[in-house]
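User: Please predict the structure of the protein below. I'd like the answer in structure-token form so I can feed it into my own downstream comparison script.

Assistant: Understood. Taking the following sequence of 259 residues as input:
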Amino acid sequence: MSSLDFAQFTTVPGSGQFYSLTSTELESREIATGYAQRQDASAITQNTRRGPGLGTILGIFDLLSGVLDLTSSALSSPSPVPQRVKHRITFKNDADIILVPGQVNVPAGYVYNSAPKILFPGEVCVFSESHLPHQTSSERLSFSFGAISTDEDILLPQTPSGQADVFPFEVHIGRDANNVFFERVHGFVGDSHAVHNFTVRRVTGGDMRVARLAYVGFRGFGGTTMPSFGIAVVQTLVALAAGTTMGTQVTFTPLNLRA
């Protein structure tokens, strides 16, 4: 039985499928499998293939804690911006893709002086904005990217033009009165536009160390050079006091699966 049997998914015609899994256990297993397959591939020759050594992974959440920085991303800390709340969003590219940033959209009253940069596999960049305390809770940030696969198995054979496909998409980071969360993802190919929304897992209470994992996978269609990758975001509580900084991490994870 495929993991997609336990998924909510949206199809981008001619491109692939966005999907979110129905439990943290399934999300964690898929993320861990992607990293394990990469580790196995680096340990074998090109002439030898075997299944992922998942038995060598002693704890899925131990792996995730290192990859996604679950604790540090949930904490608020002193900010150098007086009278405002600072929000640092870290983008980490662990997937087999090159990410080319496009447009950044921020609500009225938000100020930022840095934007995402081109991310090659293994690279990290930070977006930083500041806003007044108790800013309207329903507002969101959105970031657009073009993703190009670097996976040799996907790139062979190439398209008739000799160039890999580019998949444009947007990541929306939303907030309510208590939580910062992965709200939705948009995919665009030609005239096609698909939106995948997420069910928010509520985080309540006064402990800023509480965090939840939200994940979406994108599987490019077989026979295309569209990339396959995951997007993992740690959902956290908002910081409301002036002069504090909160952090969110968006990790693009490896995914060796095709739609």
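That's the full token string. The chain has three helices and 14 strands.
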